[in-house]
Every structure is written in C-alpha cells, then in structure tokens.
Amino acid sequence: MDASEENNVKAVRRSKEEKKLLRKQIKASHTLLKHEGIHTTPQLTRSLVVANGGLGNSVSREELSAALKEMGEVESLLMPPHKPYAFVTYRCEESALKAYTHLNGQKLQCGESSVMLYLAYVNSVTYEEEASVPLPEGLVLLEDFVSPEEEALLLAAVDWSSTNEDVTAQKALKHRRVKHYGFEFRYDNNNVDKDKPLPAGIPAECLPVLERCLRNGQINVMPDQLTVNQYESGQGIPPHVDTHSAFEDTILSLSLGAKTVMEFRHPDGRVVAVVLPGRSLLVMKSESRYLWTHGITPRKFDMVPACEQQSPDHVTPEPGTCSNLTLSKRGTRTSFTFRKIRPEPCRCAFPSACDSQGAPSTLSPSTPSPPALPCCHADAARLEEEYVHRVYDAIASHFSSTRHSPWPRVCHFLSSLPPGSVLADVGCGNGKYLGVNSEMIAVGCDRSSALVQICAERGFHAFVSDALNVPLRTASCDACISIAVIHHFSTEERRLAAMRELVRLLKPGGHALIYVWAFEQEYNKQRSKYLKDHNKEHNGKENLTKNTSEDRREPHGKSAIQNSGHLEEGYEPVGKVTDGKLSVHTNRTAFNTQDLLVPWHLKEGKKPGEEESGDGVKRNKRKEKSKKVLTNQTRIDSNPGLSPGFDASMSPGLRLDTDDATHSPGSKPSPSGTTQTSSSHLKSESESHLTAVFHRYYHVFHQGELEQLCSQVGGVKVQSSYHDQGNWCVILEKD
C-alpha cells in the first residue's frame, strides 16, 4: 500500500470526534486568516497559533503557559492585547508536534470558566510593539511605599461600621464606600466648606506615612483633608481632574489592597495607563494634577505586564500594547487620597482647566455654554470624544439596562441572512443584535470599551474600535449593520467616511443596514413613539406602562429621554445652527435644529438587566453568559470628576453616585472653541436624590439626506429606504 492509499484509509477510519475536531481546526484557521490575516500552514514548524487562547478570551499568561510547558520547553509566548489568540514558539519541533497533538480540542480551565483550544502551525510570528510613552509631567509612582504591616494598620484605622456621618461624612454609595476626614467634599456644590472642618481629622495612623512624604520631598506641607474610597472588583468611576479651587497642587494617592490600572488622558488625546500595585504611592503635581484627567476603568480584570518590575520612567500607552502581558484579577482596593485645602483662588499655569481663572465652574448655578459646531477635523474629533465617547463610557451600565428589545425590522434583516453569513455590527452597543440569528457568525465593535465589556459578559464576540477604522479585512463580511451610530459624527465628511468603512467591509453582493435618527419625528401624519411618550412623564420621571418596550422609549437608539415637552402645532423646522453653538434639546419634543446635544439623565439604583417603569414595576433580569473582557474605560479614584459632556441637574427620585465631584478640564473651552458641559452635584443619601445629566452630540437627518450621503459612496447602491419610528433607514448592496 502506497502512502496516499494509507492516508485515505486513515481518513476513513477517523472517528466522529476526530472529524469534528478537524472541522473546528479548519474553521479556526479560516477565521484567523479572514479577520486577522494570520496564515497557517499544514507543515510542522516550531511555532503555533493558539486560537481561543488569548487575553481577549480571559485566558491569563500563567494559565496558558502552564499548559504549553507540559508539552516541552517554550521559547516564547506572545499574547497580543484584546485578541482571542496567542502565539507560542517551542525550542524544538518535537515539542510543537506534541502540543499540536495533545492540546487541540482540549479545554483550558480559566478560573470559573473554560475555553476550547485549537492549534495550528505558522511559519513565523511577528508583532510590532508600540513605543513606550513617558508619564505625564509631574507624575511619580513609588512602589512598596508602605510595608505590609503599615498597610494593615492603615486599613484597620478606617471604621466602616461607624454610622456617625457627622464625624467622617461616610457615604454608602452604589459604586463604593467613601469616608472624608478633615473636610467633607460637598456633593451639592462640588467643593469643600473651608469654614466647617469635620470633627474627625486625618487618623493618627496616617501621620508616619505623611511625615515620610515630607522628609522625602513628595510634599512640602502637611495635608489636612483625606478621602478614603473602597472599591470592589468591577467598580470604577469616570475620568476627572480634582477641583482646582478646592485643593493645592500636590495630591497623594495611596493604593492599599488589590492592584489596579489608572488611565491618564491629556486634552490632546494622549493616553497613559499606569499600573498601581498595592502599597504604592502615586504623587500628582503640576501638569499631571491640573491638566490630565485620571480615572479607573470599571472591570474585573486588568491587562498588566507579566513581570512585576516596571520602569518608573516609562509605561506603555495602554495596558496591553506590549507583548509580555497577562491578566490580573481585581480584588478589593482601598485608596487613601491626601490633599491640602486651598485658602486662596488657584493661580496655576493651566487656566484652560482652572475654575478659579475663568473656566466654567461647577459652582455656577447657570448652565455652561454649549460647544460650537466643529470647523475642522481636529475640532470634530474633540467634540465627539467629549460628547459621545466619554459620555457612553460613563453611562454604559444604565444605557445597557435600557437596551434589551431588538427592533423588529432590524431583526427581520438579520433573520433573512443565509446560515453561515458573517455579520459585523459596527457600533454594537451592548450587543443586543449579536444574538438575533444564531446561524450566522456575528462580531461587534464599539468605541465604548465599557459597552464592549458588557457584550463579552453576555457571551458575544466584540472588540473596541472606532467606526472610521474597523480592524477587519476588506470584503470579509456578508452583511454589516450600523444602528444609531452615524448620527454621532459631527461633520458630513466623517459621516461619509463611516459609511465608506461599512462598505469596505462588505463582500461583493453584501448588504448593509443603516439607521440614523430622523429630524422628521412626525411622518405621514404619524408621530413617532419618541414624541408620543412625552405625555407619559410627570415629576421628572418616566411613567411607562409595564409592557413599554425600548422602541417606545427611544426609537432612535442611543438616547435617553427624561424631560417632557410639548409638540408645537404648525412647527416649521429650522435645520441649521444659527449662532454657531449647539443647543440642548428638550427630550420628547420635535427638533428645531439638526445639530444638537441630547440629555441623558443617569439613573442610579438600577441593576443590570432591569428596567424600571413609572409605576414601580421592574423587569426581570435576563440571564446572561458570564464572560470577561479587557477594555479601556475609565472612572475615577479619589475625586470624581466628571466626564466632559456631563452636566448636573436636580430631579426628584434620581441620583448619581460619584466620588468627590470635581471640576473637569472638560468644562473649559478648548482651543477649538468647544466648551464642555461638566461637573456633578450630589448630596448625602438622606438628602434629595439628584440626577446627573450627560449631553450627547447628534446630527439628526432630514428626509433624503441619508440617501444623498449613500450616493457619494462608490460601488454601492441603495436597495431600499424607509422611515421606522423616528429613524431614516437604508439597505445598501455592494456591487
């Protein structure tokens, strides 16, 4: 029997399990090629790609490495950030063959979950690491600043069982526990009352640490205010800058307990992620204190360097942009933030972010000036960053709780796709459309890493990406959907670019479904549900019936509706901004301009998966698959400050839990002329509840505008267009 006949006999004798495994191996290799450009080879090599064995699948380096090392000596293990695969190179081909034979189709236990590994040979492994980025000017991280004994002493000094709020201003907020010593940060005016010190000063247990800081030159004056925050795994708060007028220059943040990753963001878009180990001290001075926002992403795992040693001078742009990464499971973290009360107005060198020097102040009862329409690409990107991206990051949990009912006509489009079709949902939000058709291969992406994390927790495949540059191969998708996304781009050029990116992803003959919010909320003598529901609200709350669906509340997608309004009879639309400034829309009313800011009233007290109606009826929680993802979203540590696009407004029954509310640089006009609406107002739990209001930018489309935009995209034709409950919609077909 010759070799070919022998192979044929072996093929015939394969068991059903072997055939199934082979099919899955082939499918995994095809997916890697199609979506990642990774070429596998049937020839034995020392290097393999491990599908499903990546950081994006919640597989840690330690877990994967242990399994791979059982097969032989590993020369290198590369785990690209946010990817569902890894590359391993063995010292010899025999070890690679053993891994290929024994690990293919095997389950790898990863904490409480498991993944099925599929291996394939690759000829080479290449990965371009990003250059390290310096820390913000004035930022210093000192690891092991306190001993384990000092850490235990400090943690024991905080008596969380105390119920005397007058002494330490303790708050049991939704996202953390907080205590103030020395002075209370007031949630109603975003500042401290300098004439009313608290009975409890900074605990004596802190004094040796502060005296050491004085001796070492980290500070030159003893702090008189301390905020202690305790976060459980998965908790976080949005980016912020500590209020200039409230506190002096240097701020100390001592991390106790579990490690975390803190992100620093410059107004020009630079991002620096810093790993904060337990018992480390972060010193913020000058530019890092006054200009850069800092925040902590709400997630249960962080991507961190696999080795504990980290250069004090440089870190990577994001946790996860270097190859030597692993997962770090978050635990309980307690931060001690020490500050010195400022007796006089701030005269820092950063007036653009300083409330003492003319930047819109959180203390002002008047509404800050809205931003202007962008006049260039940089202005547009900045506007969308502040009034779209950061807002959705901040409201992700509440937003997701209102997004549970897929719209019928979108479902019809998805259900009509042939089995095995590849779908890309660009701007997928919480992934409510990714599970509509189980016979298709669906992947989603969204600019909000917090929403992408929710997708992963629900068992969907999603990744963080801008809709203008989706990292999928050209002509790789049978269908694409863009539901309530393109109306968030602030110029026609950027809206057109987003549409062209959708078409680029389509195969010839592929279809794209696009929904945008319509200027015409009354069409064919029928009001949209968005307008119809305005009379169902009272006292600042939504008074929805038990069976109210998401479509009835927000037919256009990403927009919260809280305030009631009146539809003006005989209303004549005015489509242009007249004074160059964006107006704030009154929810549930007809539009009078195409470019506007739409308020989102952040509700606290909800649990994910529950929707609360006006009559107090809560929807049952939906059971979701448990799957973790690593994303880039930020919330704050010590002083909360708020994401630009945020405003503070009082409304009965609603409240926002934050840390100390602070003045954000987002409140200051940027060089482009945009002005962010920011800051929060909070009171104690016993006082009136408050509503945090975030403003999101929208461009609502006139009738025919969407089709006209499509006509500028080459190689595609409009198959159909229609109006669906306050949205203009098109189905495109690629030539």
Folded structure, characterized:
The protein is α+β, with helices and mostly antiparallel strands. Among the domains are: 16-121, RRM (RNA recognition motif) domain (Alpha-Beta Plaits), CATH 3.30.70; 139-307 and 323-353, Jelly Rolls (Sandwich); 377-523 and 696-734, Rossmann fold (3-Layer(aba) Sandwich), CATH 3.40.50.150. 20% of the residues lie in helices and 25% in strands. The protein contains 15 helices and 38 strands. The strands form eleven sheets. A seven-stranded antiparallel β-sheet has the order 8-18-15-23-13-10-9. A seven-stranded mixed β-sheet has the order 26-25-24-27-28-38-37. A hairpin with a 5-residue loop joins β16 (260-265) and β17 (271-276). α9 (377-401) runs parallel beside α11. The longest helix has 25 residues, at 377-401. The chain starts with a helix and ends with a strand.
Percent helix among the residues? 10-25%
Provide the spatial order of strands within the biggest beta sheet. Answer: 8-18-15-23-13-10-9
**Architecture of the domain at 139-307 and 323-353, according to CATH?**
Sandwich
Structural class: alpha+beta
Overall pLDDT level? 76
What is the CATH top level name of the domain at 139-307 and 323-353? Mainly Beta
Keywords: Cytoplasm, Iron, Metal-binding, Methyltransferase, Multifunctional enzyme, Nucleus, RNA-binding, S-adenosyl-L-methionine, Transferase, Zinc
Family: Belongs to the alkB family.
GO molecular function, one term: tRNA (5-carboxymethyluridine(34)-5-O)-methyltransferase activity
EC number: 2.1.1.229
